[in-house]
Amino acid sequence: MFDGFDALLLARIQFAFTVSFHFIFPAFSIGLASYLAVLEGLWLKTNNNVYLDLFKYWRKIFAIAFAMGVVSGIVMSYQFGTNWSVFSDRTGPILGPPMAYEVLTAFFLEAGFLGVMLFGMDKVGRKLHFTATLMVAIGTFISAFWILSVNSWMQTPTGYEIAANGQFVPAGSWLTIIFNPSFPYRLVHTVMAAYLTTAFVVGAVGAWHLLKDKADLRARRMFSMAMWMAALVAPLQIFAGDMHGLNTLEYQPAKVMAMEGHYDSHPNGAPLILFGIPNSAEKRVDYAIEIPKASSLILKHDLNAPLAGLDTIPEDEQPPVGIVFWSFRIMVSIGFAMLGIGVFSLIARARGKLFDSTWLHRAAIVMGPSGFIAVIAGWVTTEVGRQPYTVYGLLTTADSVSPLAAPAVGASLLAFVITYFIMFGAGTAYILKLMNKPATGHEEAAASGPLRTAGITPASADSTRRGQSGTMAEEGA
Amino acid sequence: MNIDLTIVWAFIIAFAVFAYVVMDGFDLGIGIIFPALGRGAERDKAMNSVAPVWDGNETWLVLGGGGLFAAFPLAYAIILPAIYPPIIAMLLGLVLRGVAFEGRWRDPSHQPFWDFAFTAGSFVAAFAQGVTLGALLQGVEVDGRAYAGGWLDWLSAYSVLTGIGTVIGYGLLGSTWLVMKTEGVVQDHAFRMSWKLFPATLIALGAVSLYTPFLEGEYWNRWFTFPNVLFSAQVPVLVALITFLLYRALKKRRDYAPFLLTLALFLLGMIGLGISMFPYVVPDEVTIWDAATHPSSQMFMLVGTLFIVPLIIGYTGWAYWVFRGKVGDEGYH
């Protein structure tokens, strides 16, 4: 079994699989951690128990998503060595330190305060508990900072020299390495993507419960908050994506050529291909629907600016066009659909129909998982688009792989696929089950089951006390 | 000031690995002894006792892996392909048990499945960690800057022995942890399990210690030549002392001492391991200096580590303090 396969291809599939599966969870938990901090902060500030109920509701979901992110993340920290050992040896002196800093400054912070955030509200008091929630949220951001710095260095390497033993080693300041040219754009674009992903999940859950009961106070609150995020962040994200694209054009032009489907150079303004079917054998896009000169306008801010095509790149240095072309279009379409929901919600809000417009609610439900698709499509665009390299222009993917036999890689890939689908499938099913229940005024005190085992009512002294004023607030509302 | 940063980093990585064993050993141990615990309250309490801390514990494993990559990239690049199957098995085991924490509570109708996943995952992870250690000690084939052996070279009687030994040892950490964290019937049961796992751990420790000097490496020389013998001779003496103290602590039904003494036993094992390996990171092939990263990288990481690790220990300690005491006591629920 697997003997006829190519170990390199299997290793690539394995990494693509484990990293894509992993990233689904952080894409959600980065945004959700911040949302939880906002909810708890608003509760402390206003004493309005709707916020506390929402906090407890989403905290249960966060606990599951975070646990799945942790265990699928441990896998990633070993995948570099198991499947890409040559890459690890060559890049260790540059990429090791920021990854070590990610563990030290982010993972420990998240994990250290998570227990208190999930289980400790009655033990440490409100202020300290809020601090724990903030630390978890900050931890998720710091984690994104370091790992995106690492990824960006692989895309736009700077501040290195190549030592006699073949390793990339630091030359000069670490700041040059950490703040490499594509890092600021990738960081902003990815973090906003995580916020949007979460906002659309929260929005869909709010909409789902509004369709059942439009008087549901808590559903109203979460839906309203999510729609504000959509309306405000979606346009910013499109702008940030455009900036990121311009940065890519400067440092990785071949990736942009593949995204645009530009097999040929266009000396007098390049068309923007909206849709079409890339035909790499014939080096053209079939059935293309295009806007003349618009690509030059977007990328060069000049209708007639010349744009080079893949014909200027040697064949063995080109990324696969089809995948990049399609994944880019999926991402962009979802981005504009998100903007559409944001605008739709603003109009409904202005008319005072935010909680009555069933079409808006239905659309928001449909868009619920869209953030995940967009995020994965975006990563596919940038990662496939930088092929055939792991360190752009310097180290090829083929030269990075571990000296492993195909059966070993194939068998482990199969084991990953089976385990991930069963375990994370179950986890996702539990999340959906929790989402299907409306948030209530008596959310269990604990985020997770373990604390209920004594069989006493879960409401703590604290939440009981607050619960009474909360009931009054609800009646007054 | 002329401190060898490579040695500093070797100690930091060793510390991370030990911290991982301290923190996650009992955690996996709970999973290993789980089937022996009564369904219902007993299992619930055992799981409760680790629920708030398990993912912090596993972060030390990420630091061990990430730290090895950062500080000794060549060692990371050689060792991981050499022990590919056990590493993958360990990772999948951790996935199983990690998700089982949530699944078990969210989905009582499938509790037997989740209990099985929790135990199987813990068992596989512990066994794979022991195998990894054994595979490393028995030596791996290196050519240039890469692993040169086959993908089943790790499998041997010795590595299986170290795997079984680790499972038993973690089991003892788990049962003595329960002694510390529970009371009444559950604690009685934990004591009874400890009485079985304690001699089993000693037998495993003895078997591994007897086998190791007969491996191909230089262990015989490293253990039994002067001046090393002065250090290595202390280890069995200390093991005997700890064994006696642990015996007495179990006899007198102490709450905390059995767990702490079991940890001390593991610490001695680690020190023995250190004496056996130093200064190699891949036995007889790659020294820590061969594998060390660039001095600028060592320095850059060290500055942060010296500030951050004490903070981590501080807030991790605080989190344990928040959840101190017996499970089922006031406030836990």
UniProtKB/TrEMBL annotation, chain A:
<keyword id="KW-0408">Iron</keyword>
<keyword id="KW-0813">Transport</keyword>
<feature type="transmembrane region" description="Helical">
    <location>
        <begin position="15"/>
        <end position="39"/>
    </location>
</feature>
<feature type="transmembrane region" description="Helical">
    <location>
        <begin position="323"/>
        <end position="347"/>
    </location>
</feature>
<feature type="transmembrane region" description="Helical">
    <location>
        <begin position="359"/>
        <end position="380"/>
    </location>
</feature>
<keyword id="KW-1003">Cell membrane</keyword>
<comment type="similarity">
    <text>Belongs to the cytochrome ubiquinol oxidase subunit 1 family.</text>
</comment>
<feature type="transmembrane region" description="Helical">
    <location>
        <begin position="100"/>
        <end position="121"/>
    </location>
</feature>
<feature type="region of interest" description="Disordered">
    <location>
        <begin position="445"/>
        <end position="477"/>
    </location>
</feature>
<keyword id="KW-0479">Metal-binding</keyword>
<dbReference type="Pfam" id="PF01654">
    <property type="entry name" value="Cyt_bd_oxida_I"/>
</dbReference>
<feature type="transmembrane region" description="Helical">
    <location>
        <begin position="60"/>
        <end position="80"/>
    </location>
</feature>
<keyword id="KW-1133">Transmembrane helix</keyword>
<feature type="compositionally biased region" description="Polar residues">
    <location>
        <begin position="460"/>
        <end position="471"/>
    </location>
</feature>
<keyword id="KW-0349">Heme</keyword>
<keyword id="KW-0812">Transmembrane</keyword>
<feature type="transmembrane region" description="Helical">
    <location>
        <begin position="223"/>
        <end position="240"/>
    </location>
</feature>
<feature type="transmembrane region" description="Helical">
    <location>
        <begin position="192"/>
        <end position="211"/>
    </location>
</feature>
<feature type="transmembrane region" description="Helical">
    <location>
        <begin position="404"/>
        <end position="432"/>
    </location>
</feature>
<dbReference type="InterPro" id="IPR002585">
    <property type="entry name" value="Cyt-d_ubiquinol_oxidase_su_1"/>
</dbReference>
<keyword id="KW-0249">Electron transport</keyword>
<keyword id="KW-0472">Membrane</keyword>
Automatic annotation (TrEMBL), chain B:
<dbReference type="Pfam" id="PF02322">
    <property type="entry name" value="Cyt_bd_oxida_II"/>
</dbReference>
<comment type="similarity">
    <text>Belongs to the cytochrome ubiquinol oxidase subunit 2 family.</text>
</comment>
<keyword id="KW-0812">Transmembrane</keyword>
<protein>
    <submittedName>
        <fullName>Ubiquinol oxidase subunit II, cyanide insensitive</fullName>
    </submittedName>
</protein>
<keyword id="KW-1003">Cell membrane</keyword>
<feature type="transmembrane region" description="Helical">
    <location>
        <begin position="157"/>
        <end position="177"/>
    </location>
</feature>
<feature type="transmembrane region" description="Helical">
    <location>
        <begin position="300"/>
        <end position="323"/>
    </location>
</feature>
<feature type="transmembrane region" description="Helical">
    <location>
        <begin position="226"/>
        <end position="247"/>
    </location>
</feature>
<feature type="transmembrane region" description="Helical">
    <location>
        <begin position="259"/>
        <end position="280"/>
    </location>
</feature>
<feature type="transmembrane region" description="Helical">
    <location>
        <begin position="83"/>
        <end position="101"/>
    </location>
</feature>
<keyword id="KW-0472">Membrane</keyword>
<feature type="transmembrane region" description="Helical">
    <location>
        <begin position="113"/>
        <end position="137"/>
    </location>
</feature>
<feature type="transmembrane region" description="Helical">
    <location>
        <begin position="6"/>
        <end position="38"/>
    </location>
</feature>
<feature type="transmembrane region" description="Helical">
    <location>
        <begin position="197"/>
        <end position="214"/>
    </location>
</feature>
<dbReference type="InterPro" id="IPR003317">
    <property type="entry name" value="Cyt-d_oxidase_su2"/>
</dbReference>
<keyword id="KW-1133">Transmembrane helix</keyword>
